[in-house]
Design brief:
Distance between the termini: 23 Å
Radius of gyration: 24 Å
CATH topology of the largest domain: Chitinase A, domain 3
Structural class: alpha/beta
Order of helices and strands: EHHEEHEEHEE
Number of domains: 2
CATH class of the largest domain: Alpha Beta
Strand content: 15-25%
Strand order of the largest sheet: 5-4-3-7-6
């Protein structure tokens, strides 16, 4: 099952409407202009317009499918107990090194780095904005966990531990 927020659904519907109306009209106009240039067999303008038309129609079909098959996520409840789709979570990087030689190094360490993530459906994922997909490795790792849980996540470089500080 794919999930989407009401904001994400509005964006998809807006794009669909623009592609059905404005974009189709623009492409039709380009096709007419290209036809006026003459021989269609060697007309690169016509070929480019037909390619744009095919891409637009494919995207329209894709958007219609996404809108039909996704489930709308309601905003999270107050006092959410565990991470789910729509949750906004605050996490902190945790150093789980228990080796005596590392303990001295971390006696005066700076405060732990905190991050805020929103768990969203794959259509809305934007890691640069802190929106992570429920299908991503990080989203899957957090899913179903509670405040104070420590989650280990395998990244391309190393294993990273996060402690869930807050769930909104």
């Amino acid at each position: 099952m794919k999930y989407i927020s009401s904001e994400g659904l509005k964006k998809l519907k807006k794009e669909l409407e623009e592609r059905r109306t404005i974009k189709r009209q623009e492409i039709a106009q380009h096709l007419e202009e290209a036809k006026a240039l003459g021989d269609l067999a060697e007309n690169t303008e016509y070929a480019a317009a037909k390619e744009a038309q095919a891409f637009n129609e494919g995207r329209i079909l894709e958007l219609e499918r996404i809108i039909k098959e996704t489930s709308l996520v309601r905003p999270g409840r107050k006092r959410q107990q565990q991470v789910e789709i729509g949750s906004v979570i605050e996490v902190e990087l945790v150093d789980r090194t228990n080796s005596p030689k590392f303990k001295d190094l971390f006696k005066k360490r700076p405060p732990a780095k905190r991050q805020v993530f929103t768990i969203v459906g794959s259509q809305e994922a934007d890691p640069s904005q802190g929106k992570i997909s429920n299908e991503s490795p990080l989203g899957q790792a957090f899913f179903g966990h509670r405040v104070d849980d420590i989650i280990e996540v395998e990244t391309p470089k190393k294993k990273v531990n996060y402690k869930i500080v807050k769930i909104k």
